[in-house]
Amino acid sequence: MLCISKQTMKNKIAIFSCGDESYIEQMCAALTIACKKNEDFVPHIISDVEDEDKLKFLDKFGITLLKVDLSEQFGVHNENWPNHMFWYFIGPEVLHQMGYEYSCYIDADVYCVNKIDIDWLDDIEIAARSDRENEYNSGVLFFNNKKMVEKNLFQAALNIYKKFSTDKYLKWHGGKVHDQQVLTALGGGNKFNDFWGGGGIFEISDLSVVWNYVFQHTENRNEEYINKEYSALCDEIRFVHFLLSRPWLPFKEWGGQHGLFKTKDFPNGWVVKTNRGEPKRETRIQFVEDWRREIRDLEDEYNCTLFDEFDCLENII
Hints:
Layout: E1 13-18, H1 24-37, E2 41-47, H2 52-60, E3 64-67, H3 71-74, H4 91-97, E4 102-106, E5 110-112, E6 126-132, E7 135-144, H5 145-150, H6 153-164, H7 167-173, H8 179-186, H9 191-196, E8 204-207, H10 223-226, H11 230-233, E9 239-241, H12 281-302
Parallel strand pairs: 1-2, 1-4, 2-3, 6-8
Antiparallel strand pairs: 4-7, 5-9, 6-7
């Protein structure tokens, strides 16, 4: 059951994240940093968290919990991925009920670098950065909540998820369903939408890479920025997406296993989307250092500990 109250939030943007109890600190950090730089943002978390200590963290940071449990809907045929990663599809509907015209979803490993301009939101249904033509990354998303309610985003996403949670999809795609494939299928002109067969019923606007910055090559879609030095980027970037270089972890634990190309750039087999790696590893490290400094400032301000002591990255660049 949703724990929400009706309120008028004219000229405010709901910013939200989704996750289980193990990611409460990360979500609190991501949302609070974004809100400090954008006074029109109001933070929310969609979760089924019940742990009292975790709930105290939300209260301390002034973050509203939208308590839902969608594990039954998104727990089918999906042991590969945490089902919380699909829960953002309910966000625009819930937040519209609360009076928000627009919402912004961010992953817990997203870092808001600068104040952002939101005057363009009137013109969108959904906005996301594409990794390739008409295929989208869900690290940073913007929604016109009213349009999402009118088009029933949640039910459409759930219908796609169910069709993708099948052996037929597994055989066709070679892997089990990921939230970005559901997101991509909502729009048109891509193989996931074709598999679904539901038509491109949602208009997905393509965000520039500065709205969801990644450090590695993505099939020549971010070449203008990928080779830039940190000093040339830090004033341009709105959000950095750390992906598998989770900045709260020691450097030796960065990386992951998603069956994509691996390089020796990072000690745990840093995974990138092409085997060319990333040309400016020092840029990633410097943004991690910025994030860590802001975390320590938050801990001082809110008199709490979000993360243990960070490892030194001085000799890594």
